[in-house]
Automatic annotation (TrEMBL):
<dbReference type="InterPro" id="IPR021527">
    <property type="entry name" value="DUF2795"/>
</dbReference>
<dbReference type="Pfam" id="PF11387">
    <property type="entry name" value="DUF2795"/>
</dbReference>
<protein>
    <recommendedName>
        <fullName>DUF2795 domain-containing protein</fullName>
    </recommendedName>
</protein>
């Protein structure tokens, strides 16, 4: 099953940017993100993300 950018952003609600990839994963895990969302986050490039659009841009390329 695929996930949508909306589901990814729901899992990252209230996160304070900028954040590193690992922080995105930990935040989503704490907020009970689905396995699909976790897979998407784990597949993102290992860099610092400055805002939600930055995450979505990387995700939409998948």
């Amino acid at each position: 099953m695929q996930t949508s950018p909306i589901e990814v952003q729901k899992a990252l609600k209230n996160i304070n940017y900028p954040v590193k990839k690992q922080d995105l994963i930990e935040h989503a895990k704490k907020h009970n993100a689905s396995n699909e969302v976790m897979q998407v986050l784990k597949s993102l490039p290992d860099k610092e993300y400055t805002n939600a659009a930055d995450v979505s841009k990387e995700f939409s390329g998948k």
